[in-house]
Amino acid sequence: MKTFKPLFLALLMGLAVLSSCRTEDDLSIDPSIEQSLSANSPVANLMSKTSLNDGSRDNIIDNASCINIQLPVTVIANGTEITVNNTEDYQAIEDIFDANNNDVDTLEIIFPVTVVFPNYSTAVLNSYPELFALISQCSDNDFDDDIECIDFQYPITASIFNENNEVINTIDINNDQQMYDFIDDLDDYAAVTINFPITVILADGTTQTINNVSELERAIEDAEDSCDEDDDNDYNDDDCNNCSTNDLEDVLVNCSNWIVGELEINDNDLENQYTGYVFNFGTDGSITVTENGNTISGTWSASGTGNEIDFVIDIPSLPDFNGTWLLHEIDDDNGEKEISLEKANEDELEFKSNC
């Protein structure tokens, strides 16, 4: 009969105990190359830019895309005090500025305020000179570092490994600031993986499922310059983000008896010359203008999407209205519809209808 020596038997029992006590989570796992992230890699740098704090949303207040002012903040717009509690309240400032196109718009910030930098650090400012000093350090407002044409859909889960390829932690990332901090700390870990699949949101609101790091890098690169990030100080150039030619046609055709609310040609206000002129737009692209019993005919057409919708008017008897106008805004002001149009030379046209 075969017998075991005591020492060998003890070793064998010890191995059995170690094997029985080790859990599945303690086992070594080789992080997949397709899911692994490393500091300063191309995909990590793209993820960092995608999660940077976007400072351009409040440019109507601070005129700086590299910082934003933490809300709430109180401002005085053309003499009216407004407390801005959320991003939707920026529109209240714009409405005040748009109420009169012939005045000089002014905005005063009530200090102290807290500003937030791209990396989410903050500073308290007590005066305009302190704010202007920060603004002067911003690069060209039209080009900041953050990537705004693609967003992460949270939460996202990541696994942290040690030198032995053992999972030592699993973290949930719930917002852009946490994502930025996570990428910033990558060099603190032996290995890191994203738990795919994840979902990203594109500029047009559609979503895309991402299954590995290579797909993520490609998706961000493809989306990086796919939209207008609106990093300038022209608060009026994004009023038709969601406009379509169908929206325009629905309003123009379904509402009747449009009048000229504003017409500015070469800095001359001409709307008073067209008091009593009534415009009606047909689905066939026709325009019928009536004035003091007279009827004038013309045509209209529209093409494009969003903030790039061209509105072409051709009324031979009314040359002030003719040409290609850019649709600026479709507005419903307490039951009064307004269609605002602009030309590249800053000519302006506004139709109004009680519809």
Give me the CATH architecture of the largest domain, please. Answer: Beta Barrel
**CATH-defined fold name of the largest domain:** Lipocalin
Oligomer: single chain
The strand count comes to 22
Radius of gyration: 30 Å
Poorly predicted segments: 1-29
Sheet-strand content, in percent, reads 25-35%
Helix % is 10-25%
- Tally of contiguous helical segments: 8
- Name of the CATH class of the largest domain: Mainly Beta
Structural class: alpha+beta
Tell the overall outline.
Answer: elongated
When the domains are counted, the total is 3
Distance between the termini: 104 Å
Average pLDDT confidence is: 86
Report the sheet with the most strands, covering strand number, pairing sense and barrel closure: 9 strands, antiparallel
Q: Which series of helices and strands comes N to C? A: HEHHEEEHEEEHEEEHEEEHHEEEEEEEEE
Strand order of the largest sheet: 15-14-22-21-20-19-18-17-16
What does this structure look like?
This protein is of the alpha+beta class and about 350 residues long. Helix content is about 20%, strand content about 30%. It has helices at about 5-20, 40-50, 60, 90-100, 130-135, 175-185, 215-225, 245-255; strands at about 35, 70, 75, 80-85, 105-110, 115, 120-125, 150, 155-160, 165-175, 190-195, 200, 205-210, 260-265, 270, 280, 285-290, 295-305, 310-315, 325-335, 335-340, 350-355. The chain starts with 5 loop residues before the first helix and ends with a strand. Mean pLDDT is about 85; it is low at about 1-30.
